[in-house]
Specification:
Length: 278
């Protein structure tokens, strides 16, 4: 009996050591970076210069995993409450508002965010340190790319900014910061050029500086196309010399930002709601 007990204890200790060893090894693999503040004040991963993995900024993502796509329904609401969409011109260079009942193959009523493999933006910006995402407005029409940042400190994503969606550059960006709990507050700021100006919402010269204030204000059960989801509610405002904008974002740990309710610089609204993900 004593021999059996002694053997069992030895086996248990060996298993414990192996488990701890594997756990430590896994943690070491997952934490092959440190978090630093980037030029825009967001926490990003910094890797050893010997790490040349093109997916190094993607490997720890829980929401923006390589190959994942997020399809959002979109609508624009005027200050009088009228729903509008927009139509891309045949040359793909311009756009115009259209009524909700208009039909055309170039009318945009949704946007797909596709997480790209590797780091394709690095060919233009060699030290690019974000997860590359593509914004697909219409199948077969050229798309733009930008970035998302995801790690244990924060999740931040650039909104689409082609055609009509340039208006969102003036709003708070979708952004959540740890700890994920009611009462968490933070600030951010961004310089924005006049290339995002448009007579249909606001024009200005030179640059403006947007100053943002964010707060996690609630956690609710939100009815969505993916089911009822427990979401954090993030209220945010932006202010610059040309005016104020706002965003109420609903964030789910698995699906990310499932609903985005923007109040634009001209008082209109932009609504994006997640309806499908793979």
């Amino acid at each position: 009996m004593k021999k059996t007990l002694k053997s069992s204890l030895i086996l248990f200790n060996l298993m414990l050591l192996l488990t701890l060893g594997c756990s430590n090894k896994k943690e070491k693999i997952e934490k092959d970076y440190v978090l630093v503040v980037d030029d825009d004040g967001i926490m990003v991963e910094k890797f050893d210069t010997t790490n040349i993995d093109e997916n190094k900024f993607n490997l720890n993502n829980e929401v923006f995993k390589v190959g994942t796509s997020f399809k959002y329904d979109f609508e624009h609401r005027t200050t009088s409450g009228e729903i509008k969409y927009f139509k891309i011109n045949p040359d793909h260079k311009g756009w115009d508002f259209v009524d909700a009942d208009d039909t055309d193959s170039l009318i945009v009523k949704s946007v797909v965010i596709q997480v790209m493999n590797g780091n394709p933006i690095a060919q233009f910006i060699p030290d690019y340190n974000q997860t590359a995402i593509a914004y697909i407005l219409i199948e077969g029409v050229p798309f733009s790319m930008s970035g998302a940042i995801e790690n244990e400190a924060n999740i931040w994503i650039h909104p689409p900014r082609e055609h009509y969606f340039k208006i969102l550059e003036l709003n708070p960006f979708p952004y959540i910061k740890a700890p994920y709990k009611i009462g968490t507050k933070w600030n951010w700021n961004l310089i924005i050029g006049s290339s995002y100006a448009d007579r249909r919402w606001k024009t200005w010269e030179n640059t403006i500086e947007n100053n943002y204030q964010y707060e996690i204000t609630n956690k609710i059960l939100l009815e969505t196309a993916l089911g009822n989801l427990q979401c954090y509610v993030i209220e945010s405002e932006a202010e610059s010399r040309i005016g104020k904008t706002a965003l109420t974002a609903y964030f789910h740990p698995k699906y990310g930002f499932v609903k985005l309710d923007y109040t634009n610089i001209d008082g209109s609204k932009t609504m994006l709601e997640l309806i499908k993900t793979n």
